[in-house]
Design a protein that fits this description.
The structure is a homodimer of 340-residue chains. Chain A has 340 residues and is α/β, with parallel strands linked by helices. In chain A, 26% of the residues lie in helices and 26% in strands. Chain A has nine helices and 16 strands. In chain A, the strands form three sheets. In chain A, strands 3, 5, 6, 7, 8, 15 and 16 form a seven-stranded mixed sheet that branches. In chain A, strand 12, helix 6 and strand 13 form a beta-alpha-beta unit. In chain A, helix 2 packs across helix 3, helix 2 crosses helix 8 and helix 5 crosses helix 6. Chain A is globular. At the A-B interface, helix 7 and strand 14 of A face helix 7 and strand 14 of B. Strand 14 of chain A pairs antiparallel with strand 14 of chain B.
Chain lengths: 340, 340
C-alpha cells in the first residue's frame, strides 16, 4: 500500500484580510503503511464550511487555529480501502474528518472519529450536508434555541446555504412562517420555490439598514419571533428592528465579519426592550443532540421532505477557489469538492 | 376626608435628551371621597428607579409610556389612613404603585395592587429596595439567568445601586467571586467594605475601552462567567472582552443609552466566539418567582446578611431633582423620597 501517492492541501500562510488561494499549497506525500487499529480512507467528497475561515486566523476563537504547514482539516465522506481494524472493512462508506487530501489514515480505535453510513436511501455526500454537521447545526439552533411555536415567524440568513436551507424547512415542519435572507434573486427564488420558504428577502437589493428593515417588515407582517444568524452586521441590525417581544436569536455564524474588523451591533438596547434571548453555539459541543437530530434529518431526506442543493467543485486542486467562493456567497447550498 | 389636599407631581413634558426638572410640575388636587372597595394610602416613601426614564419617552419600549399631565407612576410604601375595603384597616403598612403624590386612592379589590407588609424585622422602605422590586430584579437575573456555580466570577455594573448591591451579595451567598463596577472611589469602597464584594472597578478612572478592559482583567483573573448588566456601552464592551466560554449576561438595564442615541455593541462576534447566552428581562413579567425571591431576600435582610444603603431625599418637591441625580449616578444604593 505504500506506493500510493497522496495529494494534500496545506495551509501555508494566514490571510491578512480576505482568504486567498495562495494561502494554500498543494503537495504530494506518500501514504504510510497502516499500523494496528488504523484504516485507510479514500476521500470521495470534502466538505467546505464557513467555520474554516475563522480557524485560518491565529487568534482566540472557539476552535484551535488550523496549524500552518499541515493538511487543512475538514469533514469528509469516503470509502475504506484498507483496514487493520476489525470494525471497518474495505468498501464501507464512512464519514469523518479526513481533511483536504485524497487519502486519510485514521486511527479508528478512537470512538467517534469515523462513522459508517448507509447509502441505500441517503446519498453519500448528504452526510456532509443535510444529514451531517450543517443539518445538525440547523436542528440544534432551531429546535433547542429558537424552539418555534406554530404560527410564529422564523427568519434565517444565508438561507440558501446548507445550514440555512435546513433551518427553514425544519421550521416549516413545525408550523412556523419562514422567511429567508439571501444574496441575489436566483438564491431567493430557489429558497422559495425549491425549499418551500414563505418568502425570501434579497439583501443585495437594498441600500442600507433602513431599506432592508422595511423589506423584512413587509415579509414579516407579524414581526420576527426567531432568528437563526449566520451573517451578522447590517442583516442582524435589520432583524433586530423587527424583533418581537420574547424573540430568540440562535447565533451560529457571523460570516460578514470573518475577514476583517468586527462589525458592531447598532442597537443592543433592543435586546432589552424586546426581552430577547440570544445564544451563541457550536454544534460539536452538543453531541448529545446528534442522534435525535440525525434521526429526524435522515428521515426527512430519505422521504424527500427535506430538500437541499449542492455546489460541487471537481478535484482536490479546486478546493481553495471553491472555499473562497463559499466565503463570497457564490455557492448554492452545500459546497463540496468531489474527488472520486 | 374630602378636605385633604393632595400634592402631586405630574409629567408635563417629555425630555428632548436628558431629563430635566422642568419636565415635571407640582400641583395640588383634592382627595376624592372613597367609594366601596377603595382605600386611601398616605405615601411614606416614593421609589425612584432608572426604568422611569425610559417611560418618559413616547417611544416603543417594554412598558407603556408615562402619560403626559398625569401623576408620575412609581412604587410606594405607606399606611392605610381610610378604608372602604374589609381587607385593609387604617394603620396597615402597604406597598404598591402609589405614584409621585402624598396620598393615593387605590381600588384594593384588584388582586395584587396593594400588599400588606410586616415591619417588625424589615423597615418599611426596604420593601421598595432589597425586599422589593430591585431585590427581586437582582434575584431573577442572578438566579434564573446567570445561575452562578461556586468558584465562578460574577460581575455587576452599577454595583452600588439598589439592584447591583443585591446581585453581588446574592452571588457571594452562592460561592461566586464577585466584582462590581461603579463610578468613583467612594462607591467602590462601599461596595467592597460594606457590601462584601471581592473587588470593584471604578469605571471613571479609566480613559477608554482598552484601559477599562485591562482593569477588569486584573480584577477577574479567571475571566468572567456571569454579568449582570445595568449600564451598557463601553462597560458592556469591556466585560465582553473578558468573558469566558459559556458565560451568561442578564440584561436588566442600559442606563448609559437612556438619554440619547443608542450605543452600539462593539464586538458582537464575541457572543459567538465564547458561546455566550444573553437575555433581556423585566422582573414584572416573572411574577412566578416573586414568592421565592422575596422569601430569600426577606430572610437575608432580617438576619443582617444582605446589606443595603439608601439615599433619601426629603419631601415631594425634591423628587424631580433626586430622580435626575439617580440618572447621573449621584445616589448610593436605593434612591427614595421621604414624605412622612
Amino acid at each position: 500500500m505504500s506506493t500510493f501517492v497522496n495529494r494534500q492541501i496545506l495551509l501555508t500562510s494566514r490571510p491578512a484580510a480576505e482568504a486567498r488561494a495562495d494561502n494554500f499549497t498543494l503537495v504530494e506525500a506518500p501514504v504510510p503503511v497502516l499500523t494496528d487499529g488504523q484504516v485507510l480512507v479514500r476521500n470521495h467528497y470534502l466538505s467546505l464550511d464557513p467555520y474554516m475561515r475563522g480557524r485560518m486566523n491565529d487568534s482566540k476563537s472557539y476552535a484551535q487555529p488550523q496549524p500552518l504547514n499541515a493538511v487543512m482539516q475538514g469533514g469528509t465522506v469516503g470509502e475504506i480501502v484498507d483496514s487493520k481494524n476489525g470494525q471497518f472493512q474495505p468498501g464501507d462508506k464512512v464519514v469523518g474528518m479526513g481533511g483536504w487530501q485524497e487519502y486519510a489514515v485514521v486511527d479508528a480505535t478512537q470512538r467517534g472519529v469515523l462513522r459508517k453510513v448507509d447509502t441505500a436511501k441517503i446519498p453519500l455526500p448528504a452526510y456532509l450536508g443535510a444529514v451531517g454537521m450543517p443539518g445538525v447545526t440547523a436542528w440544534y439552533g432551531l429546535v433547542k434555541l429558537i424552539n418555534p411555536k406554530a404560527g410564529e415567524t422564523v427568519v434565517v440568513s444565508a438561507a440558501s446555504g446548507a445550514v440555512g436551507g435546513a433551518v427553514g424547512q425544519l421550521a416549516k415542519v413545525r408550523g412556523a412562517r419562514v422567511v429567508g435572507i439571501a444574496g441575489g434573486p436566483d438564491k431567493c427564488r430557489q429558497v422559495v420555490e425549491e425549499l418551500g420558504f414563505d418568502a425570501c428577502v434579497d439583501y443585495k437589493a437594498f441600500a442600507g439598514l433602513k431599506e432592508l428593515s422595511a423589506a423584512l417588515k413587509a415579509a414579516c407582517p407579524k414581526g420576527i419571533d426567531g432568528y437563526f444568524e449566520n451573517v451578522g452586521g447590517v442583516i442582524l441590525d435589520a432583524v433586530m428592528q423587527n424583533a418581537n417581544a420574547f424573540s430568540r436569536i440562535a447565533l451560529c455564524g457571523m460570516i460578514s465579519g470573518y475577514d476583517g474588523a468586527p462589525i458592531p451591533m447598532a442597537a443592543p438596547q433592543l435586546l432589552l426592550v424586546n426581552r430577547m434571548k440570544l445564544e451563541g453555539f457550536i454544534v460539536s459541543e452538543h453531541m448529545e443532540v446528534w442522534p435525535d437530530a440525525l434521526g429526524e434529518l435522515g428521515t426527512l431526506v430519505a422521504t424527500g421532505q427535506l430538500k437541499y442543493r449542492e455546489t460541487i467543485a471537481e478535484g482536490l486542486a479546486s478546493a481553495p477557489e471553491a472555499f473562497i467562493g463559499l466565503l463570497k456567497g457564490r455557492n448554492f447550498g452545500k459546497q463540496l469538492v468531489k474527488l472520486v
